[in-house]
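Bug report

Summary: structure tokens for Hydantoinase/oxoprolinase N-terminal domain-containing protein differ between web form and batch submission.
Environment: batch mode, default settings.
Steps: 1) Submit the sequence below via batch. 2) Compare with the web form result.

Sequence submitted:
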Amino acid sequence: MSWKIGVKIGGAVIDFCALDTRKNEVNSLKVLTTPDDPGSELRQGPARLAKRHGLGPAQVETFVHQATLGNDTVIQRRDARPAPVTHAGFDTMFAENCPRHPQIPLPGLRTDETQQFEERAA
């Protein structure tokens, strides 16, 4: 049996999704974030999945994660002023509205404040 686990780290909850590739079955759960102990959710989620489904570390073939915390900070204009960093040539991406949601206001990032870097693409 092999599993693929995906984790989305958000501001209020962390979403876990586990695919049992043998049964082609998807299992998911949400774990509330704990501001007083950040990161503990990343231990709780896999532990709960293991308990529910008899899942062990050796059975996990893929583990991926994605975080929206940085995006949320910019959109909600919390904390320190962000310093945008992009690949060279993409400096306007923070200053443009999303074509799918043009009604959403700009997050307040200026093109002239964006730091660009060159990347080697293979």
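Above is the batch result. After comparison, the two runs are identical; trailing whitespace caused the diff. The radius of gyration is 19 Å. The chain has a mean pLDDT of 79.
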